[in-house]
Write a structure and sequence with these properties.
This protein is α/β, with parallel strands linked by helices. The chain has a domain at 368-425. Helices cover 21% and strands 12% of the residues. It contains four helices and 19 strands. It has helices at residues 2-32, 246-250, 385-388, 422-480; strands at 52-55, 67-70, 89-93, 101-102, 113-115, 123-124, 137-139, 161-163, 185-187, 209-211, 233-235, 257-259, 267-268, 281-283, 292-293, 306-308, 317-318, 337-339, 360-362. The strands form three sheets. Strands 1-2-3-5-7-8-9-10-11-12-14-16-18-19 form a 14-stranded mixed beta sheet, with no helix packed on it. Strands 13-15-17 form a three-stranded parallel beta sheet, with no helix packed on it. Strands 4-6 form a two-stranded parallel ribbon. The radius of gyration is 40 Å and the shape is elongated. It starts with a helix and ends with a helix. It binds 2-acetamido-2-deoxy-beta-D-glucopyranose (NAG) (4 copies). It holds the Pfam family LRR_8.
Length: 481
């Protein structure tokens, strides 16, 4: 009974609150009445007419009336009048507009996220962001910045994420991120950076994610990752590296995810990934020049979970011991996904990788030679559709047929003595050929001599007779003289 009372009291209270809030929401709508598009907004009036304002749910717990203000796709080149909403604006999205220059941004003391992506910004006033003390995320991607003014982020000590992707940056000042001790995510993708200052990240101990992809980097300064002990994700893809900068990377002791795709390496070997003790994900895709992955290349990567080696148009050699150490030492084996799609590989012996033990393996679109050495591929993962779709390039009889449709008995080697190497097989072939030739030669000699003996038997007789005639003649001549 008491419980029921309590419950009905609760219900009544909820109802009252609901009615109050509904009538409270109705009021401003009637007062303003002019802007139909802002019906949803709790405070339609202060919102500039070309923008939409909604409650910023991300910070609603910590602030009283946080507003997310979106003014995208409005051809704006100057700031709308935000004076009425200034204090409560936590997110400002000005992406897809026509801003070419960023001057001082007025006191937006609660602004957390500032999105200026997809404009045509060529220049920024050095003090432009000085009055945004609580800014945490700034997105300047897809603009036309070829340089940044000195100290442009100087007062932004709360910044956690900076996106400078898709600009034309050719260099960075060594102190540009000095005041960002909370910086966690930095995107520098698709700029024209050829080198980086050695001390660029000296104060960014919390940097977790760094995207340097699609630049013109061919080396990194020795100690660039000296302070970034939190770095877990690094993207170096689409640069000009001809060797993996493994010594520099080794300083980022907690690196878990590395992408070195689309660089200039011709070969990867045991020096490429040393001391990356925490690496879990490695991507080596789209390497135009890569031909060879040598013995022991991945031997040190005890914690490797996922490896991608895809679309390398010249990669024909994956050495038998490339994964040596991972494949037999069970405490060192964590592979869950191996993707070798779209290379030029023709051979892979059973012991290279324990394919049957790895949950996801993609070997499709290579040049596999389906002989006795590749027979093992039939022995596991029969149900896995991706695994079944592997096709062979040779032998001709079973070329281009999915391995699921080929009988295991077809995986044969042309010359018997299956375990032998090519050299030994060649040697055997040579010996056999030599034997046959010797026999033929000897046979020929025997026939020849037999024949000769016979011919001499008859012909020699003739000759002797002729000789005798001749002799007789000579004698006659002599006798005549
Ligand atoms: C900010 O929100 C608070 C609480 O709703 C409100 O009292 C104040 O007037 C707002 N300030 C501005 C400038 O809109
Ligand atoms: C911004 O805030 C500072 C300090 O609170 C104040 O001195 C300055 O006048 C303000 N500027 C504007 C444009 O409101
Ligand atoms: C900024 O806006 C662009 C375009 O709308 C969007 O793709 C991007 O995710 C936004 N950035 C942030 C940090 O929210
Ligand atoms: C197997 O891996 C563990 C972990 O790295 C290592 O400590 C151990 O020495 C390895 N054992 C062999 C036989 O290589």
């Amino acid at each position: 009974m008491q419980l029921m009372n309590h419950l009905s009291n609760r219900l009544y209270l909820v109802l009252v609150i609901f009615i109050i809030s509904v009538s409270g929401q109705d009021k401003p709508k009637k007062v303003s009445g002019k802007d139909q598009s802002n019906k949803q907004s709790p405070i339609p009036d202060p919102c500039p007419s070309m923008c939409t304002c909604v409650s910023d749910i991300r910070v609603i717990d910590t602030l009283e009336n946080p507003q997310m203000v979106t003014c995208s796709y409005k051809n704006l080149a100057t700031f709308p009048d935000f004076s009425a909403i200034l204090d409560n604006m936590t997110t400002l999205d000005l992406s897809y507009n026509k801003f070419a220059k960023i001057n001082l941004v007025d006191n937006l003391t609660d602004l957390r996220t500032f999105n200026l992506s997809n404009n045509i910004i060529e220049s920024i006033e050095p003090q432009a962001f000085e009055q945004l003390p609580n800014l945490q995320i700034i997105d300047l991607s897809l603009n036309k910045l070829s340089s940044l003014p000195d100290m442009v982020f100087a007062k932004l000590s709360q910044l956690k994420e900076i996106d400078l992707s898709d600009n034309g940056l050719t260099s960075l000042q060594e102190n540009i991120f000095d005041d960002q001790q909370w910086l966690e995510v930095l995107h520098l993708r698709a700029n024209n950076l050829k080198s980086l200052p050695e001390v660029l990240f000296r104060n960014n101990e919390r940097l977790r994610v760094l995207d340097l992809s699609h630049n013109e980097l061919y080396s990194l300064p020795d100690t660039i990752f000296q302070s970034t002990l939190a770095l877990t994700t690094l993207d170096l893809s689409e640069n000009q590296f001809s060797v993996v900068p493994s010594e520099d990377l080794a300083r980022a002791k907690n690196l878990e995810e590395l992408d070195i795709s689309a660089n200039m390496m011709k070969k990867l070997d045991h020096d490429s990934f040393t001391n990356l003790n925490h690496l879990k994900v490695l991507r080596i895709n789209n390497m135009k020049q890569l031909t060879e992955i040598d013995d022991y290349t991945f031997s040190y990567l005890c914690y490797l979970k996922k490896i991608e080696i895809k679309f390398n148009p010249r990669l024909s050699m994956l050495a038998h011991s490339a994964f040596y150490g991972l494949n037999f030492n069970s405490s060192c084996f964590n592979l869950e996904e191996v993707n070798l799609y779209g290379n030029q590989l023709s051979e892979m012996k059973e012991h290279v990788l324990p394919v049957c033990k790895i949950p996801i393996v993609d070997l499709r679109d290579n040049q596999w030679k389906c002989d006795c050495h590749f027979k093992w591929v039939k022995s596991c993962k029969q149900d896995d559709p991706i695994h079944r779709q592997i096709r062979c390039l040779s032998p001709l009889k079973i070329a281009n047929i999915e391995i699921s449709d080929i009988d295991e008995a077809e995986f044969t080697c042309p010359i018997e003595g299956n375990g032998f190497s090519r050299e030994i097989r060649l040697f055997r072939l040579f010996v056999v050929l030599f034997g046959v030739l010797t026999l033929v030669f000897m046979g020929f000699m025997v026939v020849y001599y037999l024949h000769k003996a016979k011919v001499i038997g008859s012909f020699g007789h003739k000759y002797q007779r002729m000789g005798s005639i001749h002799y007789v003649k000579t004698q006659t001549n002599e006798g005549q003289e």
